[in-house]
Design goal:
Chain lengths: 178, 180
């Protein structure tokens, strides 16, 4: 029976990912490099997150579905976030924060992808998108402030803020994929 | 390490997206298969595979040529992703609902063969994670015991032992018995 079993196991090599999914995933990952601020290292992860926010807001601005002032405001706010909203290295929260950071990055990539493939978007949806993006950016900003503290409670709060930002991005994702 | 692969890795570390793209083309199906067979859910496997390569690209500068292949580095990221997936989401898999026909390349398999494959896939998800890893790497990806030992950071002897137990347990599951 071992031989038969092994033969069937070998046949599982025919399991393949879908071509559309592969192309899309590949494009999303490699397009990070097109973002001039992206350098594949830990310290610059946050820069690419920032750049993704900027790209999304640029899209909203380009399609004139959000007030320019608002877009510029968001842009400035995100610049103020700088690039270090994650708690510093050397504590147990980092791994979790890093994980969420990756997830935020993916969600931003997906949102950007959806928007780039949308020809039109209702202005009410655009307003909602902008509000949610502000919310998400605000939480990251607060997380950044908290992470500067050496108090472990503040670091936990920072992580909570990052998680909230992540949830807001999930809301955005479901909004634009409706 | 395959011919030219080290050069591609060095270029990718230097920031060459096209070089990483070639590594992606080569290893993405392997990592997808590894994850999909372990968790038995297409969308989740796609999401996790995407995360593995995103993580790899963002952290490629941490890859070091220390006798471990690039694939073993990707496998270790994938294994951690699967562990995190189960730890954070606690998803129960309904493998019966999976459309096998979407996953298996149409190479003229009979219905009986498809059912056999489906049964085996279902059974694999019930094995211990390390047994799943060994079966996938040894029999599906056809890696040598030495390569698997390197990836899983175990001795070749223990890989052979795990392989033996994994096959035994797989047979038991297929026969409707419990595992050891």
């Amino acid at each position: 029976m071992d031989k038969e079993l092994i033969k069937i196991l070998k046949s599982l090599k025919t399991v393949q990912p879908g071509q559309d999914y592969s192309n899309r995933s590949r494009h999303l990952i490699l397009s990070l490099k097109n973002d001039e601020s992206f350098v594949p290292n830990f310290n610059n992860d946050k820069k690419s997150v920032y750049a993704d926010y900027a790209n999304i807001l640029d899209w909203l601005s380009f399609h004139k579905v959000a007030a320019t002032v608002g877009v510029v405001g968001a842009f400035v706010l995100i610049i103020l976030l700088t690039i270090s909203y994650l708690p510093g290295r050397g504590n147990g929260l980092v791994a979790e924060a890093d994980e969420i950071n990756s997830s935020i990055q993916i969600k931003l990539d997906e949102i950007e992808y959806y928007l780039n493939n949308q020809q039109t978007i209702a202005s009410s949806t655009a307003d909602q998108l902008q509000t949610l993006l502000f919310e998400s950016a605000k939480n990251l900003e607060e997380a950044k402030a908290l992470s500067a503290s050496s108090n472990p409670d503040d670091l936990s709060k920072a992580l909570e803020k990052i998680k909230t930002a992540q949830e807001t991005l999930l809301q955005i994702n479901s909004l634009i994929s409706q | 390490m395959l011919d030219g692969e080290e050069k591609l890795i060095r270029e990718a570390i230097a920031g060459e997206a096209s070089a990483f793209g070639l590594l992606y083309d080569k290893y993405q199906p392997v990592i997808y298969r590894f994850i999909y067979i372990k968790i038995g859910h297409r969308e989740e496997a796609e999401d996790l595979t995407h995360q593995v390569f995103l993580r790899a690209w963002e952290n490629i500068y941490t890859y070091e040529f220390r006798g471990f292949s690039f694939s073993s580095w990707l496998y270790s990221i994938a294994r951690n992703k699967v562990i995190d997936h189960y730890r954070t989401r606690k998803i129960t898999i309904d493998i019966e609902s999976i459309q096998i026909s979407e996953e298996i390349k149409p190479n003229e398999k009979t219905i009986d063969e498809k059912l056999e494959i489906k049964k085996i896939k279902n059974a694999i998800t019930k094995l211990r994670p390390v047994e799943q890893d060994v079966l996938i790497m040894r029999f599906i990806e056809e890696l040598s015991p030495k390569e698997v030992a390197g990836i899983l950071k175990k001795s070749e002897g223990s890989i052979r032992l795990i392989q033996h137990k994994a096959l035994k347990n797989l047979k038991k599951i297929l026969n409707g018995q419990g595992t050891d």
